[in-house]
Amino acid sequence: MRPREKLIASQDERLLQTRLACPDITRACDLARAFADLVRHQRGYLLLEWIRQAEQDAPKPMKGFVGFLRQDLDAVTVGLTLPWSSGVVEGHVNRVKTQASHVWTCLM
């Protein structure tokens, strides 16, 4: 997933040979890079178009991923659009859940 311009020559050559040998890998790679671009640059407004492209001709495993995105499309779009993240608090939420679970176990 490293940008092509950051690959060393042997990596770029290996990637090219792999892409030529397998059209499914080529398509999956192209879609993955486009999705990474949506994430990196917060382009949630392009998500639905990306999903439509993936549904048309993505390899089967990637179509499963697309299905998960569609299940909560609004939340995914917001996550790819707004600059805020709940990542900072997620660790704290999990820690509190774990502690509560231990307390509950002790009380039983």
TrEMBL record:
Signal peptide range in chain numbering: none
Protein name: Transposase IS204/IS1001/IS1096/IS1165 DDE domain-containing protein
InterPro entries: Transpos_ISL3, Transposase_DDE
Lineage start: Bacteria, Bacillati, Actinomycetota, Actinomycetes, Kitasatosporales
Limits of the Transposase IS204/IS1001/IS1096/IS1165 DDE domain: 3-98
